[in-house]
Amino acid sequence: MDGSGEAGLSPMELLLASVAGCSGVDVASILRKKRQPLDGFDVHVRGERAPDHPRVYTHIEVFYELRGEGLDPKAVEQALTLSKTKYCSVSAMLGTTTKMTWRYRILPQDIRGEINIET
Questions:
Q1: Nearest CA among 81, 104, 78, 103 for reference residue 92
Q2: 84: which DSSP letter?
Q3: Does an H or E element contain 3, and which?
């Protein structure tokens, strides 16, 4: 962790990474329980902050790119809904004060991405 954001993630970037990690674990677990052919996924998180101090997040977008031949979009939507409304305590906490949007897309299994954290 680095307060300046030069040598590592800033505390606010770590908060976004926490949303990605918490919901990512949930979504993977739920899709496994639904016996979905999940080969991998990437979570991209972007946050918009207020212009004035304490510069809290005003909007957080969580975007999933999932890979797996035959993934059922309804199963993915159910997994995302369960994560954001029931299981992910990080998003539940942030969602009380911050607008959060969740999106996804299903990719062919041979495409790879990366985790993106933007502030």
A1: 81
A2: I
A3: none
> Is residue 43 within 8 Å of 80, Cβ to Cβ?
no
Q: What is the pTM of this model?
A: 0.83
CB 20 within 8 A of CB 92: no
Cβ neighbour number for residue 94 with a 10 Å cutoff: 21
* CATH 3.30.300.20 for domain 12-118: yes
Give the amino acid at 11. Answer: P
Q: Locate the domains of the chain by residue range.
A: 12-118
Nearest Cα to 114, choosing from 36, 17, 10, 27?
Answer: 17
Separation CA 63–CA 55 (nearest Å): 22
Taking alpha carbons only, the member of 15, 37, 7, 4 closest to residue 90 is 15
- CB-facing half-sphere around the CA of 66: CA atoms within 13 A: 25
Taking a C-beta distance cutoff of 8 angstroms, is the pair 118, 5 a contact? no
Which residue positions in the chain have pLDDT lower than 70? Answer: 1-5, 109-119
Distance CA 65, CA 115 (A): 10
